């Protein structure tokens, strides 16, 4: 930008990155009033000095705004503060911390689900891992249960909050653990619902949230095709499962699959 300005290439200056067109032209007009040569080191120096000063002021302004947002957050009522932490995590240090912890728990839950599918770490094959996975998943589920309850408690419109796709996904993701604890049976196919916790990231992106709302509003129109596709997918998946599934052999500790004749 400074070099272009010093060489009087105003058309290129207007398109330089980092500033709006109006800001660039105002700076150019201000500097050109001071130096009238075709190219002068003084003009370049003035521009670079201004750019450095502008960058420092901008960083200071961003820090000041961050502090103001944090101070406003702690001045709000408790429910509004909770809602702000969850819905606008990047406006405060507390929100960033909560978002980082939530992200870590989501990744931990997905990793545990993947490890449980490996025979070496499968609790059916290796019973010594059963309590380990249970305690880890229990801690993760308790955290997301508390988060789910706080979100519901802090929601301004609780009915609208319950109807959201992300809220429904969060609730379904909590079901497998509590069913496993109450029944004492590891319901394998329900474990996949824990992957719905990945939806927690979609709350941070308005474009994805808008997509969910658009799809939700189109459910009536797309209902029949979705049911048909879902039914076909379920039938084909079930056939493949019963065709290719193996039988657990305790002596070999594997799930062997018979070779096709």
UniProtKB/TrEMBL annotation:
Membrane disposition: Multi-pass membrane protein
Superkingdom per UniProt: Eukaryota
UniProt keyword terms in alphabetical order: Ion channel, Ion transport, Membrane, Potassium, Potassium channel, Potassium transport, Transmembrane, Transmembrane helix, Transport, Voltage-gated channel
GO molecular function: voltage-gated potassium channel activity
Segments forming domain Ion transport: 102-249
Location within or outside the cell: Membrane
GO biological processes: action potential
Bilayer-crossing regions: 94-115, 135-154, 175-202, 222-243
Listed GO CC annotations: voltage-gated potassium channel complex
PANTHER family: POTASSIUM VOLTAGE-GATED CHANNEL PROTEIN SHAB, VOLTAGE-GATED POTASSIUM CHANNEL
UniProt name for this protein: Ion transport domain-containing protein
Lineage of producing organism: Eukaryota, Discoba, Euglenozoa, Kinetoplastea, Metakinetoplastina
